[in-house]
Request: fold
Amino acid sequence: MAKPGDRVGIAALSGRIDPDRLAAGVAALEELGFEPVLASNLRPEASLSGRPLFAGSDRERLHAFHELAADESVAAIVFARGGYGVPRILGHVDWALLAARPRPYVGYSDLTPLLLALVARTGTVAFHGPMAVDFARGLLPEERRSFLDALAGRVPEPWPLEAVSTELSAGRPLAIEGRLFGGCLTMLAATVGTGLLPSFQDAILVLEDIDEPEYRIDRLLTQLRTSGQAAGIRAVVAGHFTNCAREARASLIDFADSLGVPLFAGLPAGHQAPNHTLPLGASVSLDVRNATLQVQR
Reply:
């Protein structure tokens, strides 16, 4: 766990981050009381190779991340931004190194498969939550509280949800228990078949995304279902679907109906504010009657 006063690493495994936004993110973490430590590929003196799409070549990004992860003085690692790049290096991550030095890792979007692989390969909890670019825009008070509570290991208050499709839960227990998995829908579908995703058996599956038309959302959900990756989940919870077609909800309802599980919406997580920090891999309980999601102690 990590608390104000601790050193917090900032890693960049995906796209390049604008120096001004990085500086603003660093300043925001300092205001929270942390001592930010930049990965070597984010430092001003870094001379990066590779395409401008990425924060350095695959080798440079991975080396900088491993170097930061090996630093035992770093209490947590927050990622700089998403974009694209993690799938290229995911199969080369040193999971033994990460398992030997457990700590909170926080990110979302392109980091989704890395976070889930961390849970699967190290047996620890990883966090779907704000990155340096989010700190740069300025976190809402509830986002700051959620982030600090997560890093400190404090159990958050239950999240109120919207019950969208619960008739299929007739005969089910009023509290559905499982492990919290999920993240960016696009990245989940892109990682199917790699062997790096954990099983979603008995999971409460959180889904969110950005800038996707209805047909692509439906295609991504179909990929999760027909691949067998969604087999055994107990409920679906939708976070933000930012700049997505309103009809996306219909695809989510179809997805949940096809699996015979209830669908809830309104979780404050994803590509817009508020973006709360969610403990992926943690045990959670979904209260069907009161439509709340609670992390178990």
Residues 86 and 278 are 20 Å apart (CA to CA).
